[in-house]
Amino acid sequence: MGALLAELEAAAEEPFWYGRSLDTLYFGGGTPSLLAPSCYEQIIDSVARHWPWASPPEVTLEANPEDIDVDRLAGYRTAGINRLSLGVQSFQPAVLFQLGRRHDGAGAAAAFDAARRAGFANINIDLIFGVPGQSLAQWAADLEAVVRLGPEHVSVYGLTYEDRTAFGVWRARGRLVPVSEDVEAAMFLAALERLEAAGYCHYEISNYAKSGSEARHNLAYWKRRDCLALGAGAHGFENRGWGFRWANERHPARYIDLIEQRKHARAFGEVLSRQQAMIEQVFLGLRQAAGIDRAAFAGRFAIGIDEQFPNLRALCRAGYLEPSSGGYRLTRRGMLVADAVFASLV
Q: What is the pLDDT of residues 107-116, one digit of tens each?
């Protein structure tokens, strides 16, 4: 906690961040809901002393259902947190067992109810599909469960297999078999159809929101806006030049040592090239339902998007993209193979 506050104090004096105003604050990664509410009150107060809010802020906390109760949640509300993101993942016992989660469906629903009773009027629920052994019927039941609860926001992610993670190793060794591409596609479309029917706007490939409840913090990321990151393993971005991104040391003890030595703990930094920035602008734009803005691209890079990426028209002819009011956006077919579409632009 002391190292985090020291990093915050030092960042506030950096020329790039000095005197800026903030719109969102996000506490995520690991298990932030294990920290006491008083810790968040101290952090939020320190942030507010250095950076005024540009508007009524969105202050989000990630939480696991098994780690919270109504008293703890009320403490978070008092500390200044006004948006909660619950890592439910599933309501089905077999799926939760496969994911190694400690809560059950009843516990997830109880955590949501506790958040409402504590005063949270802006709640996100995370769901995961494509879990080995997960059936379409189980996924449909998860979607019905979340619709019954009625959160303001739903994030729907397909399970990914990263190298050196348990799931990645188990897949490589044949210990588990991923669901087929056809089943995964059917799950994606089932979520889109059920959540849209329930009144949620599909505003980004993996995200749905009731009107006015889009995640402002995530939108800033997709629009390549400045993001100051603090803490062990945090990732930040500065939209100056063509962009600069960095990551802090992940190991807590080494992070603390670095803060004590030099007031920052950046273990990685990358200055982006113009080409990298253009590619990012396109694929982050395509992740959003609104799509790529042709005028914004030309204004930023002094070149037309069709000139820079001539295969966009070919992707339209193939049915993966379609014209939007300002440029291009993914079709439903394109959403199912979005990674391949993005790779074709590199």
A: 999 999 999 9
